Amino acid sequence: MPERTRYRDRHIGPDAAELARMLAKVGGGASLEEFIAKAVPAAIRAAAPPALPPLAGAPEGAGALGEERARAELERFAARNGAHRPMLGLGFYASVMPAAVRRLMLENPAWYSAYTPYQSEISQGRLALLLAFQTMIADLCGLDMANASLLDEASAGAEAMMLLRRTCKDDGRRVFLVDADSHPQNIDVLRTRAAPCGVEIRLCAAAEDFAAGAADAFGAYFSYPGSSGRLADWRETVARLREDGVPAVMCADPLALLLLVPPGELGAAVAVGSAQRFGLPLGAGGPHAGFIAFEAGYARQAPGRIVGVSKDRQGRMAFRLALQTREQHIRRDRATSNICTAQALPAMLAAAYAIHHGADGLRAIAARVHLHAAGLATALRAGGKCQLRHEEFFDTVSFEHPDAAGAVAAAAAAGYDIRVAGEVVSISCDETTTEADLEKIAAACGGEWQGLPATADLPAALRRAKPALPHRVFSQNASEHAFMRLLRRLAHKDIALDRSMIPLGSCTMKLNAAAAMEPLSDARWNGQHPFAPAERLRGMNELSDDLGAMLLSVTGFDAVSFQPNAGSQGEYAGLLAIRGWHRERGDEERRVCLVPASAHGTNPASAVMAGMEVVSLESDAEGGVDLDDLRAKAAAAGGRLAALMLTYPSTCGIYNDSLAEACRIVHEAGGQVYMDGANLNALVGVALPGELGPDVMHINLHKTFCIPHGGGGPGAGPIVCKKHLAPHLPGHPGAPEGGRRDGAVSAAPLGSGMLLAVSWAYMRMMGAAGLRAATGTAVLAANYMAKVLGERYGMAYASSSGWCAHEFVLDLREFKKSAGVTVEMVAKRLIDMGFHAPTVSFPRPDTLMIEPAESESLAEIDRFCEALLRIRAEIEKVAAGAWPQDDNPLANAPHPAADLLEGWEGRPYSAAEAAYPLPWLKEDKYWPPVGFVDQVFGDRNLRCALAPDEEI
Ligand SMILES: *Cc1c(COP(=O)(O)O)cnc(C)c1O
Description:
Layout: H1 7-11, H2 16-26, H3 32-39, H4 67-80, E1 85-86, H5 99-106, H6 109-112, H7 124-141, E2 145-146, H8 153-167, E3 175-179, H9 184-194, E4 200-204, H10 207-213, E5 217-224, H11 235-243, E6 248-252, E7 270-274, E8 290-294, E9 306-311, E10 317-322, H12 328-331, H13 344-383, E11 387-388, E12 396-400, H14 404-413, E13 416-417, E14 419-421, E15 424-428, H15 435-444, H16 480-492, H17 514-517, H18 523-526, H19 538-555, E16 559-561, H20 567-584, E17 592-596, H21 602-609, E18 613-617, H22 627-637, E19 641-647, H23 659-668, E20 672-676, E21 696-698, E22 719-721, H24 756-790, E23 794-795, E24 808-811, H25 813-819, H26 823-832, E25 839-840, E26 847-850, H27 858-879, H28 911-915, H29 935-940
């Protein structure tokens, strides 16, 4: 068989000849194995890659699968899922992703392989679509602003709760009043979040309960419609609460909001929910775009990312992430949330669904869903067996049935999953429901089908008066040509992995293979409701079990939870496990969490969410924990020490040697060690972190294990832990883990179940040896680049071994002094050369952190190095005085084409020098659509939605 047909040879960029050249350049020995022995310290190195568990039912054992074999196995998993139609509701509804959205976006790397839009100039396309999402959510909710997505509906509710807590001026108000008719998982996620922060969740069944609790409450939460489907008019209750100083959150269904009075008009200050039913597959729970909308006064305290409108240097309208000063990477333990990776791609898909259907189309879909529910209610009444629980509903009909279990069984026999709780049966209609479906379900429940009614009216007081989504973007792109060209035009503005390498330190931008992405479009794989009976989820659960076993074998831990939807949520869940373990041992007061100053901003932000008190630690020269400082601070904390959070290899990209000793010190002091696993791409297959001391760790599947970044999400942040912490992993009311029904951190038990197929395919196609080769190559590529660039740039951190791990940090401080050139200018100048910048100013200001990962060929790596070396030469010219400090290709970068056409006479550098600084750019040039984007202007003139007449 010719070599190139192995998947690993497609995943790993450099071929044998390129590897040899890289090894020679760094003095790495004759083979990748020799190099690994040199670069990875013996103290952590595994002699051979840990074997992967054999694949159940596969005759050939654990060998790496080829693409065709992997596809066959994935189809086997998909086929073992059930094909029933889920009408269970609970925040998850079948929907139809239009073919145009699927083919042009979900299956298009221009959209899914992009990074979070921190570099606004190369992100105008995805920022525009996220702005359309915000516009849509804010308008549907009748509130001033919305953010660019949260992780899911349940956690969005928890974020809203904490937003109201933070902004409440009376610290004595500690109660959050919660509508008892809310989805159970939403209530449980609120409880999990409330407990460590001293907040009490009080369930309210009626208006009187809300009134009775108002004096102690800082906020109230309503479900609109309720979990039972009931549509209550909460207007008066909300108004009275507001008079008592208690603002309200409404958890709303965005499809219903096309027809209903928006939460803002009902008096709610905040609205949350999920955009899932806007064309996103059920996916066994996700990924789905959670949302939050709010009154303008909350903007500076709101969680997550907000896209805002600003202008570029030439005054052109330009988009960028607004109010970044609220975020964890700046505010750390005082951040408004720990959200880093959110749900950008699902949010963009939902916006595209709305653009595709247009406002009229969406209204028609919503009206039909309601009509179907009304038809079902009529049939159930006519049968005389069922007693409807409420007459006012949007899509969900709940009723008492003399033999509820029998009705559910009869519906299942007819191919439908419906919800039952005691004697009450609930059935939710959705976009896919047909009259034929309703007829069969009605029969199963003892109803008599009467045909669809001609019309169905919502309660008069709750009917939306002002039509939703009057914006041009939701009416001008209904023809498929217009829609296709809109998406092409937007995608063309951006740099994603389909254009060039994205060497973002700490973010591990590697190949998202087409073969691994295939299951995401397969209805048998992505169509499962997270709370369907277990037999419908057989394939899903078998795949997640197999992936879990593989992750445990490559990390050396004992137990896994897939619930957290991003690394940051993994941190939160892992720290809660540590907290639970301490509490069980009677150590309630252990709340001090030591976090190195070099840690990622999510670490301290997560610690605060878990009710811990952050104490900052010094780092040593290699970015490891300063052991003397650790000893001192652990001693100072004494019996209050809860945990140490550390990143290994350090965020400076060095295999520092303090790990084992740091863990020993903390364990002896009675604490636990949380390891941030974002840098696992330096360890998989060469070291087992679970055997080196840490007790619990998150894994960013969207970094190390190839789930695409999606322009800022989805992510998946499973946690792995040692045996003693396993009983403290999150439980879930919908699918108890080890009997645990509480402690949920996400809406769904598997987090985003459908995504797990991507990481599964990656691991199975690489095999154990392939994973080790990937890590070795990633580390070699980083050392190669460090060697090439180190000849002209200074390193921010010196490694005592002389080797870096999978990333390294350049120090650009001196150029500020010598040439007035900042790291930001360098980042923008890379855009002129067609590249996304490395990570800027993390873990230290004025630095660039570079991580090539293993999927880039040497040719591409060399091209990137050439760009940075060219920039170095330009800096030299400025330093030498050949170009003025305020007028040179760096200071003016990036250069949009339109700016080169006029006014160049008398400039110190030519238009050609501006646009074509390297020869290969003449072949393939990326043109930034806007110049340098003004952050300050946008924050001063905050605008986070499109005007009705604006185009994107
Ligand atoms: C990416 C990252 C995180 C946060 O992970 P998300 O999945 O974005 O929430 C935490 N720590 C480090 C070091 C990271 O690089």
